[in-house]
Design goal:
The complex is a heterodimer of chains A (638) and B (238).
Chain A: H1 13-23, E1 36-40, H2 44-56, E2 59-63, E3 81-82, H3 94-104, H4 111-131, E4 156-157, H5 163-181, E5 184-187, E6 190-198, E7 201-209, E8 215-219, E9 222-225, H6 246-253, E10 258-259, E11 264-270, E12 293-297, E13 314-315, H7 317-321, H8 331-343, E14 355-358, H9 360-366, H10 368-386, E15 395-404, E16 407-408, E17 421-423, H11 441-463, H12 474-492, H13 499-513, H14 520-540, H15 552-576, H16 600-603, E18 605-610, E19 619-624
Parallel strand pairs in A: 1-2, 1-9, 2-5, 9-17
Antiparallel strand pairs in A: 3-4, 6-7, 7-8, 10-16, 10-18, 11-15, 12-13, 12-14, 14-15, 18-19
Helix pairs in contact in A: 1-4, 2-5, 2-11, 3-4, 4-11, 9-10, 13-14, 13-15, 14-15
Chain B: H1 15-28, E1 50-52, E2 55-56, E3 81-83, E4 91-93, E5 96-97, H2 100-109, H3 129-139, H4 146-150, H5 157-169, H6 177-190, H7 201-205, H8 213-229, H9 232-236
Antiparallel strand pairs in B: 1-2, 1-3, 4-5
The chains are: A alpha+beta (638), B mainly alpha (238).
Chain lengths: 638, 238
């Protein structure tokens, strides 16, 4: 059985991280160059960590599957990054950001981790400004702020509707500087397919060169995964097409516990699906809800164009149900409210699965020019896809899978249950509990990469006496052979169905039974359907081409094979958690108003799942959560 | 050139969704699909890179390949699809090219040397709104390489100029401004991109509508850097 020790330092919460930084061991500057760290993923977490570790003097090898580290999906994040600067003088503080995040996570995250995140948020903004990230500014030259969901203060820093792009480019540029200096070696178009654990320590990875097909082993003193979230298990999500769970899934099968896999986030404002060929969903930033008003017609079946529906015939349902937060209600609440009104037959658009996000009032109050300055690129994006003009007609939006709060379990030092394997950013489970607030993912990726990992990995390296290992070690040979066999097996099936057809079918099962609203009957049904689909995959998938070449179908096949297992774990986790919290909504457990009903007495814990072998039920371990500072309460945004 | 039939494509499908459908049918027939780079499918990552009917990213201005929809084409049209063609971008397979030369230009100086830690409070650096807005216009470059593909000389000037403009406009970028210009331009030459003769095809092809005003800035900074550091400085830049 895996031991779950959070390693949270003792003492008052506001001093824990500073005390820990003093108590952790350091690696002497002259010794740092003796260590090699393997970084998988080059997004906000991966690039910031790779750059920072290299600057400290470590040797870093960084791997990404795209053709350049600048393509990581962090680039697509739109709305902004939170920090507790209180520039707006509206009552913000580190404590309030900490409080809002714990409450927003529906009391299912570790308090100490979240406090640290809030504390570090302030330094992140400064670091980004120093790198030249062009955050929006006021006329006087100071940084601008806007509001985001789940908060009553204006604490979000942004660069138009492209904040993720600018933050990632800042980190990418720092990493490129380190590549030029020789501290980081970059391996683009290289995918991690397995983890090498020697004598219980994570010592390396097995990779596939995506151009030549060559399989190789890379060894080091520590391995870090910054490989993003697993939203693509639903096929349709706001993730990039290449986003996948392979790195964390293979690590899970080598012994890294997977925490809270059923905690997935559905973002309320995405462009609705327009057809069966749809390949992904496009996010419309939450920042739009600063100025847009969400509504549907009051009457079911009202198919009139929006301009013909008078104001008193409209139901501004978020403003009605949640007067203090209104359109900025947190994502899980706003998504369920949208689903509710569409299920009642009041949805808009051809499919009836859509609600309006209307800017008419904001435009008449602020003028088109101001709206264009705030959201220009988002409005253009919407128009390109739907061919409708959001300056003249309300946007149609619908909830879509966006983020995964679950991920590999990590302790306070961001280390998984495998010594030496660290996990950062969306790939880990920490900080956001059962629901992530807007503008906090960017904050977490950079906190982990710039400030937390560089400190904690030093402690790991200074404390471990790792023997030298070479690629001829029997564990390396064995894992390489397993990777080669897995690849060959996929290619040899030569069945009748394409990889995408399996992926779509899995996505539909997951959306229908493990999506916005779950129930025991549906989850049990999914737990029968998914293994059947997986068995058919391994009998009937057709993967064309060979492995000794650039083969995109082969790349997809491996990822979908992993999703076909991960989906099952998610349903198992959702079924075991007999409560509703955050993004995990079990219809059997709701309040009279239809809000999530938590069961803190029985479920205030992190569910950490341990792989027990193929076709065997994983074992679940609980990490109990205690709320000393933010008192457990029913979350209300009324 | 190979011709593929694509029947039953609707106007609301994106160009890449159309290619997905073509590929699915190829696999179902026992053939191999056509390889092309793509990822975010929302015009921000810069992966997608197709010459469509001889125009980088296709016929719609300010639009990346993944944002193009089939309603931009006539029913029954024969659409030619090619990879980016430039000496600096070797073809890897089908429509996939190697654009790592662009990363190497950034490595040469497309950054502000600001190691992690010890940064002053963000508000101690006051930046006029107009300055940051202009910097942001240039910073929007997604690194797709359409500018290179569209340029008759295969020049990467717009790519390089946009990064120089972004960083060179901001106060934080001043200490390294001229050194950055020398090094990035030198790298462009080493990578065998062509020279800029101000055709202007690049700004028309750019999915983010970046202006060649940035190239004017590049030329000015490069000239100033060469003169103030002496002619030998150009040769020294590595």
């Amino acid at each position: 059985m895996i031991e779950l020790e959070s390693k949270v330092p003792a003492g008052p919460i506001e001093l824990k991280w500073d005390k820990h930084r003093f108590e952790m061991k350091l690696v002497n500057p002259a010794n740092k160059r003796k260590y090699t760290i393997l970084m998988v993923g080059s997004g906000l977490g991966g690039a910031s960590a790779a750059a920072s570790l290299s600057e400290l003097g470590y040797n870093v090898k960084c791997f990404c599957f795209q053709d350049s580290p600048r393509r990581a999906h962090s680039i697509a994040a739109q709305g902004g990054i939170n920090a507790a600067k209180n520039y707006r003088n509206d009552g913000d503080s580190i404590y309030r950001l900490f409080y809002d995040t714990v409450k927003g996570g529906d009391f299912r995250s570790r308090e100490a981790n979240v406090y640290r995140l809030a504390q570090i948020s302030v330094e992140i903004i400064d670091q980004c400004v120093a790198q030249g990230v062009p955050f929006a500014r006021e006329y006087g030259g100071v940084l601008a702020n806007r509001s985001f969901g789940g908060a009553q203060v204006s604490r979000t820093f942004y660069a138009r509707g492209q904040t993720g792009q600018q933050l990632l480019l800042g980190a990418y540029q720092q990493m490129e500087k380190e590549i030029a200096r020789g501290g980081v070696t970059m391996y683009p178009r290289t995918e991690m397919l397995d983890l090498i654990v020697i004598d219980g320590y994570a010592r390396g990875i097995v990779t596939r060169d995506m151009v030549t097909g060559q399989v190789a082993t890379y060894l080091g003193d520590a391995v870090v995964l910054g490989t993003g979230g697993y939203g693509n298990v639903f096929y349709l999500s706001t993730n990039a097409k290449g986003s996948n769970a392979t790195a964390i899934w293979r690590a899970y099968k080598r012994g890294a516990a997977f925490a809270n896999p059923c905690f997935t986030q559905i973002h309320p404002t995405c462009i609705p699906v327009s057809g069966d060929y749809q390949s992904k969903l496009t996010l419309m930033s939450e920042s739009l809800r600063n100025d847009g008003r969400v509504w549907v017609p009051k009457k079911a079946g009202d198919r009139r164009p929006p301009s013909q529906i008078a104001d008193n015939e409209r139901d501004y349902y978020l403003e009605r149900k949640y007067p203090s937060f209104g359109n900025l209600a947190p994502r899980d609440i706003a998504s369920r409210a949208a689903k509710e009104v569409c299920d009642e037959g009041r949805g808009v658009g051809e499919s009836g699965l859509g609600v309006y996000l209307d800017f008419a009032d904001a435009i008449s109050r602020l003028g088109t020019q101001t709206i264009r300055e705030r959201y220009g690129n988002l409005f253009e994006m919407y128009q390109r896809i739907t061919d409708e003009n959001p300056y003249e007609a309300p946007m149609r939006i619908y909830p879509a899978v966006h983020y995964t709060m679950g991920g590999l379990w990590v302790d306070y030092n961001l280390m998984s249950t495998i010594p030496g394997l660290h996990v950062i950013g969306e790939a880990n489970f920490s900080d956001h509990g059962a629901n992530r607030l807007g503008a906090s993912a960017l904050m977490q990726g950079l906190a982990d990469g710039y400030f937390v990992l560089p400190a904690t990995i030093g402690d790991y390296l200074a404390s471990s006496k790792l023997p030298k290992v070479g690629t001829d070690h029997p564990d390396c040979r064995r894992v390489e052979a397993e990777v080669a066999a897995f690849t060959r097996r996929l290619l040899d099936i030569r069945g009748k169905r394409t990889v995408d057809s399996f992926h779509r079918e899995l996505g539909k099962i997951m959306w229908d039974y493990c999506g916005m609203a779950r129930n025991a009957t549906g989850l049990k049904k999914a737990l029968n359907l998914i293994p059947e689909l997986r068995a058919e995959f391994w009998r009937n998938v057709n993967v064309p081409g060979s492995d000794a070449e650039l083969n995109q179908a082969l790349e997809k096949a491996g990822r979908v094979a992993d999703f076909l297992e991960l989906g099952e774990l998610m349903c198992l986790d959702a079924l075991h958690r007999d409560e509703s919290c955050g993004g995990h909504f079990r219809e059997e457990f709701q309040t009279e108003d239809g809000e999530a009903l938590r069961d803190d007495e029985h479920f205030a814990y992190v569910a950490a799942w341990e792989y027990k072998g193929p076709d065997r039920t994983p074992a679940m371990q609980k990490e109990p959560l205690e709320f000393e500072y933010v008192h457990l309460a029913q979350r209300s945004y009324k | 050139m190979v011709t593929y039939d694509a029947p039953g494509i609707g106007p609301d499908m994106s160009f890449l969704e159309m290619l997905d459908v073509v590929n699915e049918r190829l696999i179902e027939r026992g053939d191999v699909p056509v390889a092309f780079d793509h990822d975010c499918r929302e015009g921000i990552c810069g992966s997608c890179s197709l010459m469509i009917d001889g125009v980088a990213h296709g016929p719609m201005p300010g639009t990346a390949t993944c944002q193009l929809h089939m309603r931009s084409f006539k029913d029954g049209a024969v659409i030619s699809v090619e990879p980016w063609r430039a000496r600096a971008f070797p073809v890897l397979r089908d429509l996939v090219v190697d654009r790592s030369a662009l990363d190497r230009i950034i490595q040469a100086g497309g950054f502000i040397s600001a190691p992690t830690g010890g940064a002053p409070d963000g508000n101690t650096i006051l930046i006029p709104k107009e300055t940051v807005d202009t910097a942001m216009d240039a910073a929007q470059c997604i690194g797709c390489g359409a500018c290179v593909a569209a340029c008759p000389n295969g020049s990467a000037s717009l790519f390089t100029a946009s990064k120089l403009a972004h960083l060179g406009l901001l106060p934080q970028g001043q200490p390294e401004r001229y050194r950055r210009a020398l090094r990035m331009v030198a790298r462009m030459d080493i990578e065998q991109f062509g020279g800029c003769t101000l055709y202007g095809e690049c700004q028309d092809a750019c999915p983010k509508l970046i202006s060649i005003d940035t190239i004017t800035r590049l030329n000015r900074d490069f000239l100033k850097a060469s003169l103030s550091e002496g002619r030998g400085a150009v040769a020294k830049a590595d």
